[in-house]
Design brief:
The chain is of the alpha/beta class. It contains eleven helices and eight strands. The longest helix has 21 residues.
């Protein structure tokens, strides 16, 4: 755990390095190096490093995952689609965590949660194969009871609730979405699941999500990469972690 979270009991930050690789790939250069970004993020307070190996390899490449795995001092959270290629690759790398996510070739970014109910058998096969290699499995889902019921039935111990709709709305609509997420968090915890969250979170909307005491971890990437343009990479990581921790501490003191 980081210096901001010595007890490991407040809230974890998973720093997603995908868009460091996006910048690299835009010009076909070797820089900025996502491996260096990951290691510096750890030093700045990240509790884990998240990266998504997409089927079209639009940002993170196979070589990035292979090179990073032995260098991390925290843990790798590898996001992957429910395909045999990706599951086999994950089993070869053996990250601490694999988060199974939906994936569409045409989407700019992940548009919603994994439909565990509709793809139950395929998800179950993937979860069992990963678990056989000692990998902890998380499912990236919407805050819907049916999806959490299916996750628990499959035996995946962790969920990551999709916060994209919360991040994309304002006012009363956002408040309603926040309440829906909060209910989902409580329902997931009641099912015995570890509950994480992420997608679309940034420096001025993360507070309400971080304040939900049952959320164990937030995974954030694009906002940190964008903020780093102005304040530097390590500062951007430190600021996000400080916001999350101070929000959680303030909630506990209130």
């Amino acid at each position: 755990m980081s210096f901001l979270q010595p007890s490991g009991t407040i809230i974890d930050l998973g720093v997603n390095i995908d868009h460091v690789a996006t910048l690299r790939n835009a010009r076909g250069t070797r820089y900025p190096d996502p491996i260096r970004a990951a290691l510096l993020a750890e030093q700045a307070g990240a509790d884990c490093i998240t990266l998504h190996l997409r089927e079209d390899r639009r940002h993170i490449k196979d070589a990035d995952v292979i090179a990073l795995a032995p260098q991390l001092i925290t843990r790798m959270n590898l996001e992957a689609a429910v395909t045999q290629e990706m599951i086999d690759f994950a089993c070869k790398i053996k990250p601490a965590d694999v988060c199974l996510v939906p994936e569409k070739r045409t989407e700019v970014t992940t548009e919603g949660g994994l439909d565990v109910v509709g793809h139950y058998n395929a998800v179950e096969r993937a979860v069992k194969q990963l678990q056989a290699e000692g990998i902890r499995v998380s499912l990236f889902i919407d805050a819907e009871e049916a999806q959490m019921d299916a996750t628990a039935a499959i035996g995946a111990p962790v969920i990551e609730l999709h916060t994209g709709r919360y991040a994309d709305t304002e006012g009363a609509e956002q408040a309603a979405e926040l309440e829906r997420i909060h209910r989902g968090v409580l329902y997931g915890v009641g099912k015995g699941l570890k509950v994480n969250a992420g997608h679309g979170l940034h420096y001025t909307n993360v507070q309400a999500i971080a304040a939900i005491p049952e959320i164990a971890e937030l995974n954030i990437g694009h906002a940190i990469v964008a903020h780093a343009v102005f304040v530097g990479w390590e500062n951007a990581v430190r600021e996000m972690k400080a916001i999350m921790v101070s929000t959680r501490i303030g909630r506990g003191a209130s």
